[in-house]
Every structure is written in C-alpha cells, then in structure tokens.
Amino acid sequence: MELLSRYSNIPKLPQLPRNTTRTAQTDASRVHAIRRRLPAETTQQLLTDYQAGLPSTQLAKRYGISKGAVLRLLREYNIPIRRHPMTAGEIEEAIQLYGAGHSLVTISTKLGHDHGTIHRALRQAGVAMRDSHGRERGLSKLPTPVLGLVEVRTGSAAGT
Q1: What does the alpha-carbon distance between residue 30 and residue 59 come to, in Å, rounded to a whole number?
Q2: Other CB atoms closer than 10 Å to residue 65's CB: what's the count?
Q3: What's the CA gap between 40 and 4, in Å, rounded?
Q4: Can you tell me the distance from the alpha carbon of 12 to that of 18, in angstroms, rounded to the nearest whole number?
Q5: Reduced to 3 states, what is the DSSP secondary structure of residue 136?
Q6: Most buried residue, 74, 100, 127, 132, by CB count within 10 Å?
Q7: Cα–Cα distance measured from residue 129 to residue 99, given in angstroms and rounded to the nearest whole number
Q8: pLDDT in tens, 64-120
Q9: The pTM is what?
Q10: Nearest Cα to Cα of residue 65 among 43, 94, 89, 95
C-alpha cells in the first residue's frame, strides 16, 4: 500500500457521498411504466383507435411508444388482440416478390403486413430464406475448390 501511494501519480480525489440527489433526479425523470408515461385520456384514445380498426404498429408510431407497449396496454384493459393473417393470394404474391429479389421490408410495405408476418408466411410455405446480403441461408461457408487444382486419382497406389 505504501509503495502504491509513494510511486503513484494519481492525485487524491474527493470522495462523493453514496446517496446523492443526482441519482434520485435521474430515477424520477425516467418513467418506464407505460401507464405513467401516457395520460389517461391518451390511453383511452389509443384503446378507442385500436377498437376502431387501426393496427398496433400504426398506433405505436402515432403515440411514440413501442408495439409491445401497445399490446401490453391492450392486455391490461382486457381488449382482445386482433390477428390479421395473410390470405392465400397475399402469400403467393409475397413468394413471387421474394423470389424476384425484393426484401421483406419492401414486401411488407407493399402488402400492408409486418415484415415478421411476411417472414413467417414464407418460411411456412417452404421458401428458402436469404441472409442480409442476399445469399441463401444454410449454404456451406467453406470456399469452393477451383477446378484444375485438385488432382483426381483413379488408378491404384502402385501407379498401374
């Protein structure tokens, strides 16, 4: 300990008290509960908008909260969550668009469904999915051998 203080260039810093008002202010300014972030009338308007048919993703954007927060509010108020499944025609169109090289986001914008819904429908239809660079997933990561560099032996080891 003596060597550390004798040969150290670290100046003596004042010790801050452990219970400072700064952390209390930070905690008070951060409100995580959605019920405390949205006023009661805004929450009621959100619930009314959902029951009027607006999708949860649109409500999330409108009210500046996440889609998960919208769904949590709906569950809290015992409002049944709608499922908007894709029709067979939409799935067929998504397969054609994806096969033509369109991204999931582009397809979701065109068809009016979330990109996760599009992804799930394509996987259930057996479509081979691409990675973010447009390559098919599940292909070997090993480099392909260059033709002419691999010697193929068909005879015996004795050289017949």
Answers
A1: 22
A2: 18
A3: 59
A4: 18
A5: strand
A6: 74
A7: 10
A8: 998 889 999 999 999 999 887 889 999 999 999 999 999 999 999 999 888 888 999
A9: 0.46
A10: 43
